[in-house]
Amino acid sequence: MDRLVIDGGVPLSGEVAVSGAKNATLPIFTAALLTVEPLIVANVPHLRDVTTMLNLLAQMGVAVSMDEKLGVELSAARIASPIAPYELVKTMRASVLVLGALTARCGEARVSLPGGCAIGLRPVDQHIKGLQAMGAEVSIEHGYISVRAKRLKGARICLDLVTVTGTENIMMAAVLAEGTTVIENAAREPEVVDLASCLNAMGARVRGAGTDVITIEGVGRLHGARHRVMPDRIETGTFLAAAAATGGNVTLRGARPDILDAVLEKLREAGAHITTGADWIALKTNGALGAVNVRTAPYPAFPTDMQAQFMALNSVARGTAVVTETIFENRFMHVQELKRLGADIEVEGNTAVVKGVSHLDGATVMATDLRASASLVLAGLVARGTTTVDRVYHLDRGYERIEEKLSKLGARIRRVR
Length: 417
Ligand code: EPU
Prior knowledge:
Layout: E1 3-7, E2 13-17, H1 22-31, E3 39-42, H2 48-59, E4 63-66, E5 72-75, E6 83-84, H3 86-89, H4 98-106, E7 108-112, H5 125-133, E8 137-141, E9 144-148, E10 156-158, H6 164-174, E11 180-184, H7 190-201, E12 205-207, E13 213-217, E14 225-228, H8 233-245, E15 249-253, H9 261-269, E16 272-277, E17 280-285, E18 294-295, H10 307-315, E19 320-324, H11 333-340, E20 344-348, E21 351-355, E22 364-366, H12 370-382, E23 386-390, H13 393-396, H14 402-408, E24 412-416
Parallel strand pairs: 2-15, 3-14, 6-7, 10-11, 18-19, 22-23
Antiparallel strand pairs: 1-23, 1-24, 3-5, 4-5, 7-9, 8-9, 11-13, 12-13, 15-17, 16-17, 19-21, 20-21
The chain binds uridine-diphosphate-2(N-acetylglucosaminyl) butyric acid.
C-alpha cells in the first residue's frame, strides 16, 4: 500500500496549476447517459474516483475513449444494463449520481444503496423523494434502490435539506421529463452550476443553477456536446492552506477566486496576504498565522471539504480556534491523527477546540478519508522531522499528482510503495 513520506519544515514557494474539479467531473460524466450522441469532457483530472466512475459507465455499455485534445469522449448510444452494482457503489458513494440520468433515459435503474462511510451516514432519501415526486416508483430490494418510470413528469420539489448530489440527480432526471420541474432549497455549489451549463450545452433548459431555486423545462431529447470542467476549488484551497501553514509564497494558476470567497476570507483573517486575478490566486505570509474559527455550511459558506485542512492550519497557529462541522456527523477522524503529531485538539460533539502549539513532530499517521488525508499531508509539511502518511489511496481519490505538485513548490515529499 502506498505511503507518502514527508520531511517537513520547507515553506512552499513557486507556481502550480490547478486541476479540473472532481466533484464537477463525476456528475458531468453521468450526464452522458442522457443522450445517444457523444459527450466530450475536457480538463478531466486523473483521479481514482474519476476512473471508478468511468468503469461504472463502461460496465453499463457506455463507450469511453480519448479525443485528440485529451478530452474524454463518452458515448451512450446504447445502454446495456441500467445497474450500479454494490462493488462499485461501496468504493464511491458518488456512483448514486447515475440514478437520475438512468431513470430519465431508460425508464428504470437499479443502484446499490450506499451505506455509511468514513464521514457519516449520508442517506439518499432526498434523491428518492425527488424521483417519486416526478412519478417514479421506487422500492428498496435486496440492498438496491429500484426505480421505474415510463416518462418522468415535471414536479415542484422542496428539498428538506441542502444536498449537492441530490440536487444534481434530480436535475438530470428532470431534463428529459414531461413538463417543468422546480427544485426549491437546491444546492448552490459551483459544481451544480457547472453541471447545469453542460446540460444546457446538450440542449437542456435549466435556469437558476447557483441560486436555491432551479427550474428545469423538460425536453424530448438531448444531443452531444463538448464541455470543459471547472477548476477544483477544494484542491485550490488545500494548496493555499498548505502554503499558509508553511509560511510560503505560492501562485495557483487556472484557479477561480470568485468561488472561494469564504476560504480566502478565512486565510486573510489568519494573516495571509492574498492577491487574485481572473484565473490566478497568490498567497504569501509575513510571520506566524493567527487561529481562525470555522463553521462549515452549504455554499457559499465555508466548505466542509476544507474543514480538515483548516484544522491542521489552526494546530500551528497563534491562539485558539473553534471548528464546527455542521454538514457531516463524523468528519473529525483526522483529529486523532493530528494529535499523534502533537496537535492540541479537544472534540465535543460537532465542535473541535484547537489550541495552537509551537510545533508539530513527525510521526506515522493513517489517512481515513480524502480530506482527512489532505490535512495530514499539510501537517506533515509543517512538522519537524519525518511524517509518513499511510493509506494514500484515500488521497488519490481526489488530488491529482499531489506529491509532484508539492515537490514543484519545494516540498520534500516522496511516494513509497
Ligand atoms: N443528506 C441526507 N439525505 C439525502 C442527501 C443528503 O440526509 O438524501 C445529508 C447528508 O448525510 C449530509 C448532508 O445532507 O449530512 C449534505 O450532503 P450532500 O448530499 O450535500 O453531500 P454529497 O452530495 O453526498 C457532495 C460532495 C462531497 C461534499 C458534500 C458537501 C460530490 C461527489 N461529493 O457530497 O465531497 O463533502 O457534497 O459539500 O459532489 C469530497 O470531495 O471529499 C466530498 C466528500
